[in-house]
Amino acid sequence: MYIVIFFSILAFLLTYLESKGKMKGGMKIGFILVTILGAIHYDYGNDYFSYLGNYEEITRYSFDLLGILAGEYYREPGWALLCWLFKPIGGFFMMVAVLNIIQNYIVYRFINTNVEVEWWGMAIFTYLFVQSYYLMSFTMMRQEFVVIVFLGLWTFIKERKWWISLLVLYLCSFIHSSSLILLPFAFWGFVSMKNAKIIGVGYVIFLATLWIFQDTLNNIFQFALTLDEGFSNYANNYDDGKRGLNIGLGFIVSMIPFVLSILFLFSKNNQASLQIKQMVALSAISFLIAPFSQIIQLVGRLSVYFGVYSIGAIPFIYSNIKDKSVRICFIGLYIIVILYSYYLFFTTKKSRIIYKIKRIVSKMFYFKSICLIFFIIKCI
Q: What's the rounded Cα separation, in Å, for the pair 163 and 211?
């Protein structure tokens, strides 16, 4: 745990130094460090040994391409094929290393080419400290790999090279079948932002409809689960027994980036390019899906596919706030929410080591987080 936190903070600081012109290659060095950590990690993440067990089960028999493609070895044949490809060149540990290298390189390239240098710090902060991205690469290996590949396709999406995006996303569905929902977004580059307000209004109406008809939606989801026993069992593994939307203070605060995204799309003085508006609108979709996790947690995981674009969108929507004092307040609030979620990610793990240090961390957290918040705001 500590080494992940240390490397993440170090990568952020190095990126900050480069963004302020105080060193060259800071972000690159930072990404190299977190990539090395991800590549060599062992027994870290809830599903690590599950993936290791699946790998051993898949590769224990003779290679059978037809059997793999038919899903006889694993429900996602693309993942089974990857396991077989790495068997003669280092096995599971090499596969984990290579996937981490690819993922972090994609994120590095995305930030480098799509985010202004002065906002690199906020972009890498979002990637490293929002638990759905870098941290989840240790746990949800299959889905997180597809999530980052989708991020890497942004160049082709915005340039309207839909055939490349469509082909890659279709192939990704053989690694994680949920990525099939991404196929229509291969055409996102064709979405006009001349009337961006219409998209914003549509998003708000969708959320309002979700709130009004939450009981009906809950029944629909429950019925859908009964249609596939395997999927039902898989979904139940992520179920915490909660039903319905719980709109409390935490939910409202977590929706602030969504509200700012809508205001960004509504802004009359917004001089952002078409591609930036498209990116912001795409990332905002995650906030439309995330509330479903309070009905069925597994459905909420789909929001990660779109939320990953917040790595580029968050810097734009916060830089759009013209009043410096207001901007600092909103950035501070964003950092508080992210750091608190980051804290909970570690302290809620059922680990003997974490349990022993939890009381110490809880006493130190608030003071340290306040100091870190002010420092990050200054850096950004």
A: 37
* Per-residue pLDDT, 373: 47
Count the neighbouring beta carbons within 10 Å of the beta carbon of residue 19. 23
Q: Give the type of residue at 18.
A: E
Half-sphere exposure of 30 (CA within 13 A, CB side): 30
Q: What is the pLDDT of residues 142-200, one digit of tens each?
A: 999 999 999 999 999 999 999 999 999 999 999 998 889 999 999 999 988 877 778 88
Residue 134 one-letter amino acid: Y
- Per 3-state DSSP, the chain is made up of helix, strand and coil in percentages (nearest 5) of 75, 0, 25
CA–CA dist 56, 110 (Å, integer): 34
* Degrees, nearest 5: CA angle 96-101-106: 130
Which of these, 10, 11, 16, 4, lies nearest to 376 by C-alpha position? 16
Nearest to 92 by CA among 50, 64, 133: 50
Structure tokens at 18: 């480069």
Q: Where would I find the beta strands (DSSP E) of the chain?
A: none
d(CA 253, CA 251): 6
Q: In this predicted structure, what is the pLDDT of residue 358?
A: 40
Structure tokens at 205: 């109406």
Average pLDDT of every residue of the chain = 81
CA distances to 43, 201, 356, 357, 358 from 352, rounded to whole Å, are 14, 48, 6, 9, 10
How far is the C-alpha of 370 from the C-alpha of 336, rounded, in Å? 8
In degrees to the nearest 10, what's the CA dihedral of 104, 107, 108, 113? 160
